[in-house]
Design a protein that fits this description.
The protein is an alpha+beta fold. Helix content is about 25%, strand content about 30%. Strands 6, 7, 9, 10, 13, 17 and 19 form a 7-stranded antiparallel β-sheet that branches. Strands 8, 11, 12, 14, 15, 16 and 18 form a 7-stranded antiparallel β-sheet that branches.
């Protein structure tokens, strides 16, 4: 907060304002106006507390303090019993400093608008852009970029170091069909490269542009573009090619009898009874996950759908409503740590989904590996998705379940495969 005050308020006035504030408190504290001073301090602290956030990166949130600072500055100068020449000298110093500040022009004062302009120009070619900001200016970047459908994510309350960047990028890499990464870098710091990130999801990493913060040119705002390349036309040949392993009933062609699946008693105890509808069936070997989004009043559902709603074959899996998921029976053991998840999906409404692998030690849950959430526009198009997973060495050889998670929306899934990666990613043109 103090850093923001000294950035957007005039430092000489601010320093004298603090001196005047201290003088006022010391003078009135010994009088019967003590409670009035105490109440005034509470108001000032409350006003400051409302702005103790990333929003202080914008000067408009500091403007309310400038008139107050001027009042306390004048009070401190004229109520301290100082000689007149000292007061005049201080005022002359403030005026001189203000003139010098006005003359000293910052040629890079538009660094936020410049960076947002890079995003705005490039994002016109994509449907669902996302901004991952490490400078605490994501609201300004979203505003000036003019991206109306942007999902903005930020790392808060600290900036990510260069070594931590791959971990954060991996977390948000599926937040849109293109992800713009904005970070603060030193002048002598080389740009981040794709080789340095080593992301398991593949895709393209590009430096869009850089802009210094001020005329000292010590720091710059850098904008990167990341295209994960996960969505492809579902007619592309080789979807179920060699080396792919179909998850048990991963094509969802075998529906279970209505209301008959493991875990239904747990759901009943939680007040979840969507499966009691005799017309609603579950895929055989698939279970609504009681620990993922299921609670009393939950509006989501998991069901087997057929006919024109199926994506491939006779049946598919539908997830809809609030946060929910369905997982498979326990499967065999993995042979390697580099995996690609392949599946078909259609979003009926704007949705977010992900794939998770739950690993077990014996019959006990041990650990999970998660792709992160994929944001999908509700275009009702059948698409093929390929999501990369990096399985830690200690999980190789352990039995696991495959789970599909929905974080909101309405989606239909089919043809869930897992394959071990034995070489570099095959280059394919991604669907915008």
């Amino acid at each position: 907060m103090l850093q923001a005050l000294f950035t957007y308020a005039f430092p000489p006035v601010l320093i004298l304002a603090f001196a005047g504030l201290a003088r006022a408190i010391g003078r009135f504290w010994k009088t019967d106006r003590r409670l009035l001073i105490f109440f005034g301090l509470i108001l000032v602290l409350a006003a400051a507390g409302l702005r103790l956030s990333r929003d202080t990166q914008s000067g408009r949130y500091i403007l309310v303090f400038i008139p107050v600072a001027i009042l306390f500055c004048v009070y401190g100068l004229y109520r301290n019993g100082l000689p007149a020449w000292v007061v005049r000298l201080a005022l002359l110093g403030i005026v001189a400093a203000a003139v010098l500040k006005g003359v000293r022009y910052n040629p890079y004062s538009d660094f936020i608008r410049y960076s947002a302009g890079l995003i705005r120009q490039d994002a016109a070619a994509y449907r669902h852009p996302s901004i991952v900001d490490f400078t605490f200016r994501e609201r300004l970047l979203v505003h000036y970029s003019g991206i109306g459908n942007c999902r903005s994510a930020t790392v808060f309350p600290r900036m990510a170091t260069r070594a931590e960047l791959p971990e954060h990028i991996e977390k948000y890499r599926y937040s849109g069909d293109v992800v713009y990464v904005v970070r603060k870098e030193r002048r002598d710091e080389p740009p981040v490269t794709a080789e340095e990130l080593s992301l398991p999801s593949g895709g393209e990493w590009t430096l869009l542009g850089q802009r210094y913060y001020d005329r000292r040119e010590r720091d710059r705002m850098t904008v990167y573009k990341y295209v994960p390349h996960i969505r492809f036309p579902h007619h592309e040949p080789g979807f179920a090619g060699p080396g792919m392993h179909l998850v048990r009933n991963g094509d969802f062609e075998n529906p279970a009898p209505a209301g008959n699946f493991p875990g239904r008693d747990i759901l009943r105890k939680r007040g979840i009874v969507f499966f009691e509808d005799p017309a609603r069936r579950m895929p055989s070997g698939w279970i609504p996950n009681p620990g993922q989004g299921f609670s009393q009043g939950w509006k989501g559902s998991v069901e087997s759908v057929g006919g024109k709603e199926a994506l491939a074959g006779k049946y598919s899996l539908r997830l809809s409503g609030g946060e929910c998921s369905a997982y498979s029976d326990i499967l065999g053991k993995l042979e390697g740590k580099q995996l690609t998840v392949h599946l078909l999906a259609r979003a009926e409404t704007g949705s977010r989904f992900g794939v998770c692998l739950y690993f077990y030690s014996g019959s006990n849950f041990f650990r999970s590996v998660y792709t992160g959430l994929v944001s999908v526009p509700g275009d009702k198009e059948i698409s093929q998705y390929r999501l990369k997973l990096e399985v830690p060495p200690e999980l190789v050889g352990k039995p696991f379940r495959a789970a599909i998670l929905l974080a909101g929306g309405n989606m239909v899934f089919d043809e869930l495969y897992l394959s071990h990666d034995t070489g570099p990613n095959r280059k394919t043109t991604a669907k915008p």
